[in-house]
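Sample entry follows:

_____
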Amino acid sequence: MCFCVNIFAQVDSLSLNNAGNRTDSINIQLFKRNLTNSDSLPVPIAQRGIAKIAAKQDLDDVVEYGSKDSTELDNKNQILRLWGDAYVFYQKYKIKAHYIQIDLKNNIATAEVGKDAKGRPIGKPDILIDGEQVVANKLSFNFKTKKGIIYDGRMKQTDLYINGSRIKVIAGPIDSVNTDDVIYQQDALITTCNHPEAHFGILASKMKIVPDRVAVIGPAYVKIGGVPTPLVMPFGFFPMKKTKQTGILFPNDYNFSPLWGYGLKNIGYYFPINDRLDLILQGDIYLRGSHRVGITANYNRRYKFNGNASLEYSTYYGEAVSDRRYSKTRETAYRLTLKHNQDPKANPYHKFSGNADIQFGKSKFQSLNYNDANSALNNNLYSNITYSRIFSGKPYSFSAAMSHSQQLVTRDFTLELPNLNFNTQSIFPFKNPKRVEEKWYDQISFTYSAELKNRFATKDSILFTPQTLKSSKQGMRQNANVTSSYKVMKYFNISPSFSYSEVWGFNEVKQSFDPTQIYVDDTTFFNVEKDSFTIKDKLLFNGRASKDTLNKFGAYRTFNASVGINTQLFGLMQFKKGFLRGIRHQIRPTVALAFAPNYQSYYDSIQVSNNPNVSRNSYNRYQEYIYGGPPNSGPQLGLNFNISNTLEAKVMGRRDTVARKVKIFESFGINTFYNFVADSLKLSPLSYNATTRLFKGLSTLSMNGSFDFYDRNSKDQKIDVFLWNSQKKIARFVIFSATLNTSMTVQKIRKFLAGDLSESEAATRKDNNKIDLSNQSFWDLLDNFSINHTLNVAARDEIGKNKFRFNTNSVTFSGSIAITEKWGINFNYFGYDFKNKSIVYPDLGFSRDLHCWQMSLNWQPVRGTYSFTIGVKPGTLDFIKIPNSKNRADVFTSF
């Protein structure tokens, strides 16, 4: 068997002639280059470049080696020396170093650290074994026996760095299926720290590694900062496979509670079913019985779908004081979460996706198990799972959905299952594609939709009881619409339309009157300053009405028709100088003649008192239908007036080279209706709405309200007298509401104040810029700090003063401040409610980067909880930590 070495060289004539006169078992062929100089060299050949050496050796393959700096061949001792980025390649093994010596007789390559002109070490040796790189101070490898010795070696497996004072490598046989290399290590330090002098690790006296399979260690202990700790393990197994495999999930936190006892958080077991599905059984366990258990299934089919499903259960035991006696309490909660995503390229006609978050039990699951602001403040849960089907070449589609909403404070639980929908696109029944000339009836379009829905509305505490089934409501609604549009007189559009709706249900209401007179005891307590007294009386009820819901099929039908005409008007003003360069006003007026019949046939009346002077009350028989009942507005035949506006301006600042467009009002509209057939109050209130963006889009302002054209009496009741006739005023103010939402970061505020913020930048919610702390000011550190403000005000005209009130006025902050490259302050959540003058659940903390370790503190003063941790950064060894926390059951104070 022969092996070849290619080395390009610049050789002097003296050395070449001397080499050519030698005879031994090695045949040397030199590829000459142009020689520019010659020097005096000893008999061993020193050369640059590549030489080709062939020898008969008992090896399985060719050995390739070379260097960038120089090469020296000792023919007498059959030793080849390589300097400067030297390398040796043999099969799957690759050795690189500054200096490599090859014993050609014994097939041994030895690599060592080199030194530069100042004596500093350079070019540490490294060897590639089965795709894994080992860096060392010195190593030797025998190509024939495929065994090697490595001194002070360092290798990486997954995220683990393994340092060994002495490493022995034994190569396994090579075939087309598998390669079983074995690595033995002495004094092996297992760590995730990438520093040359690891800050911590598990020090094992001996270790055996099968790359990409498993690592087995003998007696070992944890070493931190070079100091041994009493944390000892007699043996250990570390899976090295990059594929999924069954195993224990180490807890990521340890806890002690005076009430719950010692506990482990997120301890569990992992079950890989196959490449597409795995299961995780995980939870929290405390010695005094409190626990949380959950099972999660993750699935993924490439190019098809992916998702997960999780079911969790938690029970926590506590203590309560009543009459100076302690009693044991128990809080339980359940949580079901689902998430499914379909790949957009999986199927263009079928789509199934959704997410669900359902909680039930005696307590709020998220608040029971977690202390962060979102878990503590979020009281509303929503779920939606939808399947949709599009039919190729057909003008209709189908969808089936399940939705859920839940209020965790009131315990209201609403579930809609199923919710079936069938919809058609616009169909032009009279349009003939072969007809060249278009007819007026070609523009007539038809759409149809049908919806079938079942709803359960109950409390989550009685969700799985017969009462929930009794509260269910079922119904079906069908809608048919016929519309068309025609352009007349070039600038006007006429749009006739007709709509028909039919609703089916099973919850018809029947009210009855019981004339029996009854007396009811009434007790009233009065507490005036230091005096208190009670008044007891009997109230007489002169009969009473009762309501029954009949479980029988019923239906009602509604329809309406209208003919509308609309156009667009534009107003433009331009200026040649100044900041304001132009104003553009777009007006879209619409006038429509609308008709709707009277639906009083769907209403009944009932006596409410034995007194004949008391009028009967009208009620809707279909008020309990899932879609509600028909309107009670009486017959309608009138004109609907609507005006929509858009107002824009062009401005040019000092830094602008061209004028830029600014929207003053993105939308502003008014609407009213005049009913010719109404017996009174024919003119409806004038309603309005407006939306605009402020500060280049950082804030959004929305307003709505109404004005009434009729006067009112002393009881604040509207009367059939125009305000103009009584007070010579066109209309009176009724109601107003405005909401200002602002979402920004400190960076956007600074850019806005400097005039550098564009509207596209203002529209983005977050700034993901990495902070470079060099030459940074204090405000630079706050660039990614997020600020959100919500303000809602409302006013209503009532007898006396106008009632103006703040419904909402709150601000929240979140973000982190990098004080230094290592220190950071975290505002996970901090809010202030200006209306109630209170701080809203601050969630604060700080963090410190300790290279391979990290230190963090999170504090929730409202609950009095905190968590302080010094531990290894997330990875295989992140179970090494020193935690200290106070949970919600052991709070020492509140904010």
